[in-house]
Amino acid sequence: MKYSPNNNRLSPKILFIILCVLCLGAVTASALFPNITSPFQTIAGVTVVPMQKGINRIGTEIGKFFDQFESIQELQAENEELQKRVDNLLLENHALSQDQNELERLRSLYQLDKKYSDYDKVAASIISSGSSNWFNTFIIDKGKKDGIKKNMNVIAGSGLVGIVTEVGPNHAQVRSIIDDSSNVAAMFSRTSDFCILVGSQKQIEEGYINVININKDAKVKDGDELVTSPTSSKFLPGITIGYVKDVKVESSNLEKSAKLEPVVDFKHLREVFVIKELKEQPKLN
Fold it and tell me: CATH homologous superfamily for 121-275?
């Protein structure tokens, strides 16, 4: 018969019974012979009690750690919830701002429609513009099918934007008065003096357009309104263009010039009106 190490091992059941008997014997001896067990109690007090205190302290620290861990998790959850609320508020605020801007644009178009109520108009949205930050030329979503024709006047904001230069079936191209190729015959509404408005993308960057060919004796002044002239070959008369500033006599002493601040924001155009009426050309006999 071969020797096996497992033959000399006590089974768990037997070991458990032995430990129970020893514990019961220790309790009985402690009750019947307190003097005999007192040294063991002293040893236990010296060795076991400090160990128990240490274990209790470790247990307390572990408990604190898990409490702090739970608190951190709760704070993280609260922080995530607050962040969601902040994000939702930001989205709501952005939507309200967009609604407010759209309302202001629509109110402006409504006022413009009332101001030029004598003209038949069609509203159009800008669907494309050039590479510049300014709307010197752009495409609208209305064309021949909507009755749009070349040389029709375009307005927005509080006055003149420009003129239709090309027309397709469902779109049209507009050249604004700030474009380098634009020249508009204009008139001072207060004095009826004539002048020429010269477009310039460089100057509009500084917020103005040049006004030239003002009569030297014209009694014009800063703040005067400039409108389209009845002598213009393409623009309908009386459409507000803007207000002048820095009126001065040129070095030649033959005429005056000024700077015009347009009433249209050429950097933030979204919608426009196209006046469905062409300037009538007088027929010469």
Answer: Rod shape-determining protein MreC, domain 1 (2.40.10.340)
Please report, for residues 2, 76, 197, 199, the alpha-carbon distance to residue 136 in angstroms, rounded to integers and kept in the order given.
106, 52, 15, 9
The number of helix segments (H) and strand segments (E) in the chain equals: 3, 12
The candidate with the shortest Cα–Cα distance to 218, out of 251, 268, 258, is 258
Placement of tokens 């030329």 in the chain: 137
Q: How many angstroms separate the CA atoms of 228 and 235, rounded?
A: 7
Q: Using CA of residue 241, residue 246, residue 250, residue 254, what is the dihedral sign?
A: positive
Cβ neighbour number for residue 30 with a 10 Å cutoff: 14
Domain range list for the chain? 40-115, 121-275
CA-to-CA distance for 276 and 181, rounded, in angstroms?
Answer: 23
Contact between 271 and 156 under an 8 Å Cβ cutoff? The reply is yes
CA 61 to chain centre: 50
Check residue 147 and give left, alpha or beta (phi > 0: left; psi -120 to 50: alpha): left
Q: pTM to 2 decimals?
A: 0.65
Per-residue pLDDT tens for 160-206?
999 999 999 999 999 999 999 999 999 999 999 999 999 999 999 99
CA gap 23, 18 in Å, rounded: 9
